[in-house]
Amino acid sequence: MRQNIVAGNWKMNKTLREGVELAKELQNALQAEKPNCRVIIGTPFIHLSEVCKIVDPELIGVSAQNCAHHESGAYTGEVSAEMVKSTGAGYVILGHSERRAYYHEDNAMLKTKTDLALKNGLTPIFCIGEVLEEREANKHFEIVKSQIEESLFHLSADDFKKIVIAYEPVWAIGTGKTATPEQAQEMHAFIRKTLAGKYGQEVANEISILYGGSCKPSNARELFANPDVDGGLIGGASLKADDFRGIIAAF
Ligand code: PEP
User: Is 231 in the pocket of ligand 1 (CB under 6 A)?
Assistant: First the structure.
């Protein structure tokens, strides 16, 4: 079901103690504030089970930032979707541009990860987005379409409805350079149209499409005001409870 969502991606930040502190601070604050959207925090793997014990799952969902593209076995250092699920987490961020760029995750690998996440009852927060050169060459629509087609369009409509999409123009991630509300709406509408072309308008209307890229309390409201922007995936500003709460308050 389409929901407004604000999801944090802590990336490789916070010791276990610091992460637990932040989760507690958010839990206490949001319990009083009663957010008008679904709130999710994406923590490092080692934080997941502790954070799941602290937060009320109705108030704050917990997400991993990745999972392995194998079910189990001799893959030293990897963490499977089943293991993520066993911590109590309900979500997994897949295809973040940093994973695509630094760990060579391609559309085919992300297709496998998506299948494993769904098989294990996790909701994928599936990231797509173009790099600056692709936008400058006017290839951004084509790139985003192929990321969706090659990793997700094998899914049945019922499974597709379990996916959350996060459009993150790579040139806006961690750069302080945000897409304008018009650029965000234009791409989100294109994504929804692409989904409607494959699964029909009714299914497309049920999918939450988040914007990510230098979203902060000062610009969240105008980004989220767009009809096809259903919230945000937040990096830097999710590391401080006050900033993250400021973005949540945009709904
Ligand atoms: C992200 O990494 O998903 C992200 C959106 O980062 P930032 O908000 O820091 O640009």
Answer: no
